[in-house]
Amino acid sequence: MTGSVATTAAQAATQTQNADPSQARFDEALQQAVASGGGQLIAQEMMKIAQEVLNEALADEE
In angstroms, how far is CA 19 from the centroid of its own chain? Predict the structure, then answer.
């Protein structure tokens, strides 16, 4: 999963390098952040959502 996100970020960085140098630097930093820990953050957020859905389902059964 992280690989596809990093690939998408890399493509976005390549597309914006010609448009604005500061945007290109931002995109490069974003790509590095995603590659280093973005996958873990996404997994944590998915677990939070799953827990909320489970709690709602359990509350509905009561």
Answer: 23
